[in-house]
Amino acid sequence: MSTSASHAADHHGHDHHHQESFISKYVFSMDHKMISKQFLITGIIMGVIGMGMSLLFRLQLAWPDEQFGILEMLLGKWAVDGKLDPNFYMGLVTSHGTIMVFYVLTAGLSGTFSNLLIPLQIGARDMASPFMNMLSYWFFFLSSVVLLVSVGVETGPASAGWTVYPPLSALEKAMPGSGLGMTLWLVAIALFIISALLGGMNYIATVLNQRTKGMSMNRMPLTIWAFLFTAVLGLLSFPVLLGASLFLIFDRSFGTSFYLSDIYLEGIGALENVGGSPVLYQHLFWFLGHPEVYIILMPALGITSEVISTNARKPIFGYTAMIISLMGISILSFIVWGHHMFITGMNPFLGSVFMILTLIIAVPSAVKAFNYLTTLWRGNLRFTPAMLFSIGLVSFFISGGLTGIYLGNAAMDIQLHDSYFVVAHFHLVMGSAAIFGMFAGIYHWFPRMYGRMMNNTLGYFHFWLTFISAYLVFFPMHFMGLAGVPRRYYQFTLMEDFSVWADVNKLITVSAIVGGFAQLLFLYNFFVSIFRGKKADQNPWLSNTLEWTSPMDVRLHGNWPGELPTVYRGPHEYSRPDRELDYFPQNEPDETAPEVFEPAVVTEAPKAEEVPAENSVFFAAIKRVFGLSR
Amino acid sequence: MMLTLPKKSFNLLNKKLLSLLMACMATVMSFAQAASDVIQPPQEFDPSSWNWMNILICALILLITLVIARAFDIGGLAEKITGKKIVNPHKINAIVGIVVLILGFVGVWYEMKYHGKFLLLSNSASEHGAELDSMFMWTFGFTFVVFILTEFLLFYFMIRYYYREDRKADYFFHNNKLEIVWTIVPAIVLTFLVLRGFNVWTKITQTPNDKAEEVEIFAYQFGWKARYAGEDKKLGENSFVMISGTNPLGLAVEDEADKLKATLQTEIDEIKAKLASANDSTVVWRAALNKMESTGLSNTYVSEYKALREKVLDAESGAYVRQMEKEKKRKETNIKRVDLFKSKQEIFNKAAYDDRVTTEIVLIKNKPYMFRFRARDVIHSAYMPEFRAQMNCVPGMSTVFPFTPIKTTVEARKAKGNDKFDYYLYCNKICGAAHYNMKIKITVVGSEAEYQTWLAAQAKVVAPPVEAAPATPASDSTAVLPAVAVN
Ligand code: HEM
Ligand SMILES: [Cu+2]
Ligand SMILES: [Cu+2]
Fold first, then answer.
1. Is there an atom of ligand 1 within 6 Å of A295 CB?
2. B200 near B135, Cβ under 8 Å?
3. B431 is a domain residue
4. Model's pTM, two decimal places?
5. Distance between Cα A149 and ligand 3 center (Å)
6. CA atoms of A597 and A215, how far apart (whole Å)
7. ipTM of the predicted structure?
């Protein structure tokens, strides 16, 4: 507890009246609540961009022979005569995948909610190192900027797919996107990894060391468990990607051949590179890549666990089983990466091994799905938007997870690999499920962030439109994949066999546009509610966890005035038969059997600050959007 | 383009609607215009030409949704005032859930009916494919049951247990028996599937077959070539250092080696000359540049001016020389490598001379093949969905895939009721701009004789006396099998 305590003392100990400057409070803030909002807003912006990109290339797939004036307006030389350039199509797909996977669903999701919830739910004043936490955000910000810049460079963004396999990504002459765009991509990812590592170390240290009195590990909400495992995964796997990227940088700029061998390029002749292996890169990449999908998914699962339990007014079914499956998934996720490589020329025997390990990981995943269902069973289900999005997550997790059984089977993967079946699979199980977890988190903890409520009805419209359109977009892709339609194709008109899917492609694009439209409702709801939403009660969802005990109506770097709350029981005591109320907050002492604790280290409580009047509308708005609660 | 389509379902979704929806997105992303008539030539950034109608309609849709949302809220307010329940949002959502679930299942069923016949789940054109298809159906059986059951339960629970004030949830959080059951049952099912998959995978990839004929499939940006062994039944040696315009596959042919060396030497000499005069050239270019600037020509010929300036800057900074030297070194290395390659005498045993490089693949029904894959520049993937076969082509690495075709092209045409149908090998690993157009036709013929007729018409690598190397890449997609071969 020492770091946070001394930090709190630094800030508030000597000079209670000192006013933090705008910069130190809203820009380089070290308050975890503030940083979580920075992550969230950046994540939302990146999400809008990533989604916009997908709509652009979906237009191309649905109407390959039409000309869209709007494309030329937006993209200029990349869409001459309103028709997307094939190189830029690849660039869009690559940027879309990178943005969605890393920027929205890793940083945007995990960054936002780990930051917001870890201190608040375990009863800490802040992160173990608020300074590193701040750095983590600003590295992420820098990384986002570099990536966005890379989309605009003359030769186009990196275009070799979000996995950027060399030699395609290593040789500038192989495609225009492998020039400056790829360099910037690598820089962005390196910055991103630094951010992820800084954040991850902090999350782990905080969860292990800063829990308040009575918050033993087995009383932690499942969100915290999920964030903990996520951080461990990130810490162990991201450095490998950094290494892989570093080698790629060497190959690109310094004449090494880690990944290159025996290459002849039209117009250049034979290259000097010999002895490297492109497959090496794939091993390194997927050693991160597979854990990465769980880095994306686990926080969403953690959020879902809390939201479902709270809104079903029922303890989560199989708390221990949930933790064990998270742990099982975490460990196994490090030894299944080869399932992305069955047909890369890897030794087929290795393929067999990876197949077996992969199908083992399906078991803990299945356990989680069953546990969610049983939690709903005989509950008293309150359908808040957050609850609906959690249920949506369970639905996607099941439908997307089941197709993993096909793809994890090396024999079937011969046919399905890199087909649209894969696109359907990962968009459901990782894309949609995690996005829905993120929405659930936003709707559920919005009051905690802004002291106001979001509009429920708009939330319902947002949910149903998004849910239906997501299924309409991604489910039909299964059928295309089963018919052997390859992914990452700019158009299908040159392959007669695939022309029967033209209708389906149109359906998908129209659904995607409707889904994009639905997100406007969300954006409207989110931003208007920040200013206009109904004032939230202290504990609007009648929840048990500690974050709802920290005062909503004062700005407080340190979370609780006075002493930190003490925890007396686990987080899921809903609908206990022996109680009148259907919830039982963790910090409420039990009259019948009070627990006795050792006197804890007393940390000095911060003073609440007055909200200063603000004359500039601009600064007032910034403060509302990023400001501390209320 | 898609002429043969049943244009029935989505012709309502015309470009109007589309541009309208796009406009919704774009307005809010605040850099927007809906193209009113998408066929029009591209316009300048000119707000007066925007289709304000579309934007208006979008705004209207948004507004209506917001109004509906407000209406619900007012309902809630009315409830508060009157103290009576008018709507129970929990119930409404639960009902919507059930409706969506049913529509979803109907949708899947309809899609299967409409497009099911295009799925490659039966009638595999290769021997091992049947086993894959059967395994798919088993997996489908299991997962479909789980899918229906769990999705149904999810939505059923929604409607069965939605919030009512007078209810209280069960305080039920643990049941060992239940948990053990649903850990063990999936584990058993998965074990069954894994073992099956393991066997099939091993059988497909690791069964040696001496009788299999080797065919080399060569991938490059952006096309394919196939290489068949000649009378010696052996594919000759090759190396990427040998690749040249006249020897696209880099085969071990003595003449080609000499020719390549000579070309490289000429190029090196040219570079040397350029290097020797680099200083002089720099002065000359600089003078030309200065002149352009002083005479104002730089304003007339902007792009030429820019190019020249770049050249001068490169030359003056030494980048030009470095670039040249690098190129020279690469070419010298290449010559050394060719020498090294040539020095391995046994390689030039003329095994490659009678090979045939073709721009389409012809196979004989029921004959086992071993495809050997090479890539010239980046990773490609040889994807033959009708044969349930796929393998990556990796530069610097030799990969293989064995399979036996069991249906001729003609039989497949009959079965599909499409007399234009052909088998294709597609590229299935992102490899650059024309990745989407990288395919080669596969024809399966019924008899050895047909195959021999076709093969005889293909040129040998070193054909006595002068005949040139195979066709250029451009002809790839248009190549057709001589009529005799199909049938
Ligand atoms: C707005 C909804 C979305 C639509 C319409 C959409 C659509 C698509 C499409 C059509 C592709 C190209 C498939 C191909 O040709 O290979 C793609 C690629 C991809 N998408 Fe999405 N997507 C959406 C959201 C997401 C989300 C939420 C994620 C987060 C995981 C995501 C991750 C990816 C990835 C990783 C790729 C692969 C990029 C690559 O091939 O390198 N997408 N998406
Ligand atoms: Cu994986
Ligand atoms: Cu290719």
1. no
2. yes
3. yes
4. 0.87
5. 28
6. 11
7. 0.88
